[in-house]
Amino acid sequence: MGPGPVDADPRVLRAMSASLVGQYDPAMTAYMTETMALYREVFVTQNEQTFLVDGTSRAGIEAALVSLVEPGDRVLVPVFGRFGHLLTEIAERCGAEVHTIEVPWGEVFTPEQVEEAVARVRPKVLAVVQGDTATTMCQPLADLGEICARHDVLLYCDATASVGGNELRADDWRLDVVTAGLQKCLGGPSGSAPITLSERAVAVIDDRRHVEAGIATDTDVARGVRIASNYFDLAMVMDYWGERRLNHHTEATSMLYGARECARLLVAEGMDAAIERHRLHGAAMLAGVRGLGLEVFGDVTHKMNNVVAVHIPAGIDGDGARAAMLTDYGIEIGTSFGPLHGKVWRIGTMGYNARRDAVMVTLAALEQVLRSGGADVTAGGGVGAAAEVYS
Amino acid sequence: MGPGPVDADPRVLRAMSASLVGQYDPAMTAYMTETMALYREVFVTQNEQTFLVDGTSRAGIEAALVSLVEPGDRVLVPVFGRFGHLLTEIAERCGAEVHTIEVPWGEVFTPEQVEEAVARVRPKVLAVVQGDTATTMCQPLADLGEICARHDVLLYCDATASVGGNELRADDWRLDVVTAGLQKCLGGPSGSAPITLSERAVAVIDDRRHVEAGIATDTDVARGVRIASNYFDLAMVMDYWGERRLNHHTEATSMLYGARECARLLVAEGMDAAIERHRLHGAAMLAGVRGLGLEVFGDVTHKMNNVVAVHIPAGIDGDGARAAMLTDYGIEIGTSFGPLHGKVWRIGTMGYNARRDAVMVTLAALEQVLRSGGADVTAGGGVGAAAEVYS
Questions:
Q1: Contact A5 B16 (CB under 8 A)
Q2: How many beta-carbon pairs under 8 angstroms link A with B?
């Protein structure tokens, strides 16, 4: 019940134990094509180029940025938590001239703040996190795409922690590139990074196409500044997932089975229903921790559905209480980073763990652990408040 | 029965369906530490820094090269097949000044050829493939480490296709960095890249250490030229696997379970026994294809144990025969790349498929497919020759 990774859906784990098939077996290429279609529904997009990067969510971020950004390009990162710093760090390693704007942890940006910075910096790429588990905040994106389109800026969004549990509409919001991971609201294990790219983003990457020696044909003329990574060269990865099926990496078959099952379950549930499920269980957990007398961190109106941060009560040993939750009750809750380190716990309700029994048992256990630590808690206050939300 | 990826051992797939645990759960960090110890046995090394890169085997190659190589460094690649070209391509993207030497496909280099080039180029890194499935050749490495040590050159080896099925002794042969994948002789799915680094390689990477902003402490002084990738920054990956457990990527838990099981099974069998198993079944397949009247490609004295390339007989439609093997008999055999494209098939005997029944049924089916295609084959000639090897 931490901020992720969380328990995977048993159906996803079962899917991952299926027998392998060859890289170019018609069954395998059909699975790849199905996976592309399923993730179009997850990202609410018509983007043809919707596929998986073979690595953790951070691999998806790096693939997006290294493929879009040439050395010297300006990148603007609105930082409202730890993962904005990560985007900054990765963009810098791509050779970008990175500009940042910041709000205090626990807040998000207004469209006006972002537009002012876009107009001033004139970046090639605006790189923004949707949901930052470090602060629990969910940055509204609906207006940013229009701002970026007007200023001819590419909009990249890291939706690792948010997609599936919070609304995300890639086409409607004009997001050029979105990346994700399986280990949060998608209910799978870390290790595969779904990605979607708009035609505008694809055109930018196509202008840097250098097909690998030994595979290129006479019509493959290298152009533009070569992408600094082979593994993350999305032009080549698109050729592998696309009709040409040009050999690149050896697709991680078991992870593909898992990623496909994550999306299949979400699409079967319905994306809106999945988001509503996360809203419900997130609201129950929020009410529950308040019912235990805990103070919630940050601007709750912009809190992600799937995680809440609570101040560690005075007098309670934060790490000791987390250890007691894990050792005595088998429930993991999260510590925190940076300015919040040692000050808050983070409790998730996402993916397979966005369930009533998971919320209730976590609150019941937390009440006991707080009481053992000497906190003044109302007996039944947590589960009672959550039950009220459910009723 | 292709050159990989091949069927995974069912025990590996079962291990991958185990429930997830949290990233810093004591059970998870214990699994990570166990996995490091198991891969030390696989690579026959005492190297402390032996762990997994979260991606396919190509991710391991890129992590090794981008972490070792600074822009402008000289890298020497002896090219004897497709994967030498891949090392060249990746090293170029790292900004290296790449020098190559080549032998015709189907041959390997002598130590003298390599030493002459090392003395002439004076590279920082010699990057060499051990086994190249494109040609089936296995480059002898025993002498190269001593040559590199004498010339103060770092020796990187891509052992993806060879380790587990052919002798590899990282310490005895003074290999500074070795990377692998699971999908060949290790009997698992693609998606995790085991790596081992000598103290000399670690020192080079430590001199480029830049701990991520937001995680660095006052004692973490950035030094050297920053590694161009965040995801593949082995200094940070080592801090994640090491005692500091500094947050980097979110470890791909299911892939780690799989990688751990691959190594556990190999170590339980004994590395020497596993190599002998690959030798035996490779010898049976070699005898079998010859028994079918097929001509073997390349210098057989340097053939890898786990794959054989055979010339497609005149008059046989190579792709049609492969399709018949898959459709009628459920057996995949491989096509080929580059100068061998359309000229040879590649047949593997590796990992879980290094088994007597897999060899025999492949030869039985291939006899039928060759006969259907109009080739002149001796009835029973393939399985008979293989059976003689087994008896």
A1: no
A2: 204
